[in-house]
Amino acid sequence: MSKRKVDGVFHALGDPTRRRILERLSRGPISVSALAEPLDMTLAAVVQHLQVLEDSGLVSTQKTGRIRTCNLEASGFDIAAEWLRDHRSVWDRRLLSLGELLDEPEERE
Description:
CATH architecture: Orthogonal Bundle
CATH superfamily: Winged helix-like DNA-binding domain superfamily/Winged helix DNA-binding domain
Strand content: 5-15%
Number of helices: 5
Number of strands: 3
């Protein structure tokens, strides 16, 4: 997994509007125009957010005629999950070592 891919996913997830878009897409595919309706921004701004999500691998779009439909993509979420899993195991080991150190009886003089 490349650092660039990880950075792209977390950059995309770092924006509340993009997370809101992902939340809506978790209920199923939707057209860009329907996705933009409840958002307080222009269609062009929504398209820019979708481009970031698409570049990160979290979303795919498909154009059929004049309608562009958005879908969630598992691959982007897999990248985030793998990074979190890897880093969690490092911190779990460190905390375990700290716990063992704290459990050792103090040496008496």
